Structures are given as C-alpha cells and as structure tokens.
C-alpha cells in the first residue's frame, strides 16, 4: 500500500507529490497534479505518475532545467529525473556532493529556489562533534552539486530537531514544521536572505 506522502514541490503549474510504501526500499509513485484543476474544479486526478522502485521521501522541481530531484530513505541515494519520468542519474550519498565527500544529511524535505536546491534534514554523521546539533539547512548548487552555504539550527527546547519533517520556502523565509500535526504543533520560520547571500557570494568567487 502506498500510504506515505513525502515532501512535495511545485513548478508553478503543477504539484509533484511522492507517495511511497512506509518502508525502506519500498515503491514510490510520484504523482503530478494540475494546480488549476485543483482550484477551479476540485479535480484531484493526477495528470501523470512516475514509478520509482525506492522509497522517495522528498521531491524538488527545477522549472528552468525541467528536472526532478528525489531523496530516498536517509538520502543514501539521490535521484535526478526529467519531468517526463526518464531517469537521468542517481548518486550514492558520498558522490552526490562534489565538494563534501562525507556529506551525511538525511534530507527530510528540499525545494528548488532561485537556482539553488535548498535541503533541510538531519546530520547523520557518526563523528558529530560534541555540542553540534543535527538540524541542518544546506544551499546546494545543483548544476555543480556543491554546497554553497549551510545553516545549523539550535536544538528545540521542547523536543528535538527543527528539520525532522516538512519545509517550505516562501518570501524571505524558510518555514519548518518539525512534527506531525497536533494540538501543540508549531510552525517556525528562519530568515532566508543571509543563506542566499552567502551562496551568491560563493558563486561570484568561483566565477
């Protein structure tokens, strides 16, 4: 049974939502829904479905390059596909980021924004330094597959990590929903501009 909707993204006209089996290596169907049909007609019929024989927990869409980026369970594999479902490439965790071979983030959600892939997740490094928290937001140049900037968030006072579940990028903020919805759940926002500023400066230095 496909019962686990993952982190989804929009290309401005469609929503792309991965729906998976709730187990590692389970099958996923990435479903495409027309936003206009949802709003105007209440029609939730997918216009396209892409099957991936892996558990995909998050999908990001690049409008410019017409690419989908998928992260599997713990991001042991990262996938790159065309929007028509043709597989382009997949990368093992230690080869996806070219300037950080020990990349160890388990992506919980990611989005493409202003030419960058913004990833939120948990640092799974077994050599995490004392006092270092696991909540990470990383700015990735997906064309060169390099980390351009990073924001490590403090541990939440109540119950752990900010980057455990969903993320959205809107306006000048990154929005994080750390837990499943409940009476006490909160939505948190963090400034995006400083992260983008560091990333753009890094691009200028490289160019």
Task: Spell out the blueprint of helices and strands.
Elements (H helix, E strand, L loop, with lengths): L3 E2 L3 E2 L3 E7 L7 E7 H7 L6 E5 L3 E7 L4 E6 L4 E6 L4 E6 H4 L8 E9 L2 E8 L11 E7 L4 E7 L13 E5 L2 E5 L10 E4 L1 H14 L1
Antiparallel strand pairs: 1-3, 2-3, 3-4, 4-5, 6-7, 7-8, 8-9, 10-11, 11-12, 12-13, 14-15, 15-16
How is this structure best summarized?
By secondary structure, the chain is mainly β. It has two domains: 1-93; 97-207, no CATH class. The protein is built from three helices and 16 strands.
Provide keyphrases for this structure:
single chain, 207 residues, mainly beta, 2 domains, four-stranded antiparallel sheet, 3 helices, 16 strands
Order of helices and strands: EEEEHEEEEEHEEEEEEEH
Give a quick account of the main beta sheet: strands, pairing sense, barrel closure: 5 strands, antiparallel
Give the count of helical stretches: 3
Structural class: mainly beta
- Helical content class: 10-25%
Question: What is the number of domains?
Answer: 2
User: What is the mean predicted local confidence, pLDDT?
Assistant: 88
Which assembly state applies to the chains in this document?
single chain
Distance, first to last CA? 48 Å
